[in-house]
Amino acid sequence: MIPGHWFPGVERNSERMEFRQIEAFVNVVRYKSFSRAADASFLTQPTISTHISTLEKELGVPLIDRKSKEAIPTPEGKLLYRYALDMINTRERAVVALKRTSQEMDGILEIQTSSVPGEYIIPSLLAGFREQHPKVRFYLEQSDSGIVERNLMGNKGEIGFVGSKGAKELAYEKLISDSMVLITPKNSKFLSIAGGEISIEEFFHEAFVWREQGSSTRKEFEERLTSLGYDPKGIQVVARFNSMEAIKQAVGDGLGVSVISAIAAERSVDTDCRRFLTFKIKDIDLNREFYMCWNRNTALSPRAESFRDYVINAVRGGTLSQDHTIE
After folding, report:
1. What is the CATH T-level fold of the domain 102-170+299-316, as seen in this structure?
2. At residue 133, does pLDDT exceed 70?
């Protein structure tokens, strides 16, 4: 039973919770959907519904609010969810310890990531990790750093990758250093100064292709503009994207300019015939870091713990030691 808690109307000798019911419940809450929980569990939706209904009957309380469009936990469901995650992860850790072989590790690792790590850092890490653990599968959700942190604090996902840190509930591990650069179309104005640096005044009034509000790149650039006396509200945003590749394509097509990660600027599909120009920005420090993070207050599953350790070893071993800062 959940230590220190008891649901009203539940007799102690009537409790018959099973792990398959707990797993079904966790997946419904995690994915906010019975159908998506079924896909993640490789079960049918009726089976998931039966597990949840049985669990609710045994506990004597509703756990999922079925009236809303999404499957949202009730107050009792939120209470159970915190303990259910620890129960499942503790069981998996025990199983892995008993099997004592990495080849036996399986299941789904859910990762939350902001755009730059998701597009340019994580793919190679997943490939390398899966060579060691071929039975592990990955679910990756890409958003911005703010959403990643909120999702991890809400136990949606186990490992996150962000471009800033600030949530005390999360633990952070630095991955790589990076910087922000200006990218522009290859028009006459910018071709005339290509290869040099550019001042803020030279591009501040240009049309901007920009990131969403929660983007760490956008947040840090606007904060540094403010420190120099510029009002970020003066930026003329003509389009907003949450995809780095879409931003680069739009700039290359002449829609406007943008400030993006140096990693993203360097790792273009069309590197040899790049359709945009890249500039270091004068008189402003635009260096920053990317981090891996996880919830301090929730026990990680064995696969999440192993992946975290794999990434840390890759960083310390030099695999991710590339420095993209600009002096």
Report:
1. D-Maltodextrin-Binding Protein; domain 2 (3.40.190)
2. yes
